[in-house]
Design a protein that fits this description.
Layout lengths: L1 H5 L14 E7 L7 E9 L7 E8 L8 E3 L9 E2 L9 E4 L10 E4 L5 E3 L4 E6 L3 H4 L1 E7 L4 E10 L6 E2 L4 E5 L9 E8 L2 E3 L1 H5 L1 E2 L8 H20 L2
Antiparallel strand pairs: 1-2, 2-3, 3-4, 5-16, 6-7, 7-14, 8-13, 9-10, 9-12, 10-11, 11-13, 11-14, 14-15
Length: about 230
């Protein structure tokens, strides 16, 4: 989980050096992945390249799920512009995470609505059912092929035309899946396309009227990190 927080800003294979400082505040949840509440990564301390990246778990007003925000109120995870999901817990896997993974995974509860990011035509549903589970394939009008895997239910049929924003189905945990999520994959011809490059991304900023509450959360979590570091 820690690595996922900073993957947008730090190349964890290239940018880490001896002497870097890692600080994490987390809840140890029995039988589940520890829940990170706050984290700081101090890169190359005492050098001209020194920088600190931080993350604080916080649920913004109107959001269905908590996210992670830097201390200046900028959301750390980037979001796809006009992606297939509005609500999701986190992006749990990027295309570049490993060579054998050909899409982007969104961790989200079963039943989250999936919409068509672009207008196009449904070309297949529920192929390779054992691996993909319930699934939908759409060819966008620009020729890009989009695959939506592991759905709980489909809302479209083979050959159906769809417009941008139209409901395609709902997320699930069907097929070869280790937990509820949406696998979103893009292809142009024989080439797999990174959704980050295709859609572009944005980062949200907390509104000014939400900063006081957020700053209080940052102060509390930072104090807990500092207290534990001081006691070591």
């Amino acid at each position: 989980m820690y690595a996922r927080l900073f993957v947008w800003d730090v190349d964890l294979r290239r940018d880490l050096h001896k002497g870097d400082v890692v600080e994490v505040l987390f809840e140890d949840k029995t039988g589940a992945e520890p829940l990170v509440l706050a984290a700081r990564l101090h890169l190359q301390p005492g050098t001209p390249a020194e920088r600190v990246v931080d993350a604080y778990r916080y649920q913004a007003a109107g959001d269905r799920f908590p996210s992670y925000w830097s201390s200046d109120g900028v959301e750390l995870p980037r979001r796809l512009i006009d992606g297939p999901l509005t609500d999701y817990e986190q992006i749990s896997s990027l295309l570049r995470d490993r060579p054998t993974h050909e899409g982007m995974d969104f961790k989200t509860p079963i039943g989250t609505e999936i919409v068509a990011p672009r207008a196009g035509k449904v070309t297949r549903v529920n192929w390779n059912h054992a691996a993909n589970g319930n699934c939908v394939e759409v060819r966008f009008n620009d020729g890009t092929l989009a695959k939506f895997l592991h759905l709980n239910e489909n809302a479209v049929k083979d050959g159906q035309s769809v417009v941008a924003g139209e409901l395609l189905g709902k997320t699930g945990n069907t097929g070869r899946s280790t937990g509820p999520h949406l696998h979103y994959q893009l292809e142009k011809g024989s080439r797999v396309v990174d959704p980050v490059d295709y859609h572009g991304t944005l980062r949200r900023n907390l509104p000014a009227d939400g900063m006081a509450d957020f700053n209080a959360t940052v102060k509390e979590l930072s104090a807990q990190i500092d207290a534990r570091v001081a006691s070591l």
